[in-house]
Amino acid sequence: MRWFRRKSAGRPLTVDPARQEALVADIRRRFGGHVQAGFREQAGALAGLLTDDDGLAVAGRVVHETAERAHTDLQRHGADRHNYRALFQRTGLRYQLTDQPPGWHPFVHLPAALAAIDADVKRAMVLTDPNWLLMHTLELLDLTVSGWEFARIPVTADAADLVTRLIGAATRMRLTEDEPPALPSGIREVMRSNRAFDVHDRSGAVLGVINVGAETRRLFLI
Question: Is the separation of the CB atoms in 194 and 214 below 8 Å?
Fold first, then answer.
C-alpha cells in the first residue's frame, strides 16, 4: 500500500495540549445524546468550535477514537478492519456505532469532526497521522454501510448524513495526494454494489434513498 507523505502545514502550527483536553471535556459536556437539541443542529454548532489547530486536533481524535473503539468491540468476532463487510456478511452481526459506550456521539461529535476536517483537510492531516485519519474514516464508512446491508440496521436520516460526511471527508483526503493510497478491500466491495437504501425518519416514513456504491464510485474514482 502506498502511504501519504506528511505535507507542510503552510503556516506554523499553534497547538496547546492542555487546551485540547479542556475542549474535549467541554464538548462532551455540552453536546451529545443527553442534550435536548437535535443531532444535526448540535453537529452544526459543534463544527464551528473545531476550526483552529486545537479544534482540528480534537476532530482527528474523535475520528481515531471512534474507529478504535469499534475495532476493539469487533475484534472478538474476528474482524478484519480493512474489510468489515466480510464480517457482517458472514455473521449477520448487528453492530452500529450507537452501540459504543458513552463518549463521542456518532451523530453529533463525529459528523462535526468530519465537517471541520473537510473544511481544512490539509491542515487537519498535518495535525495527525494522515494515513490513519483516512483509514479510520473509511473503516467507519465500511462498518456503517455493512450493518445496513447485512444486518438490516435501519437507515435513519442521521446515519445517512453521517455516511455522506464520511464519504466527503475521505474524498477530500484522497484529493490531497496526486497518487492516493489504495482503497481497502471492504470499500472496493462497497463501490461495486449498486444497492439503494431507503432513508427513514423517526416515525419510519421514507424520506428518500441513498446509494453508497454509486456515490463512492463517483467521488473515489476521480
Answer: yes
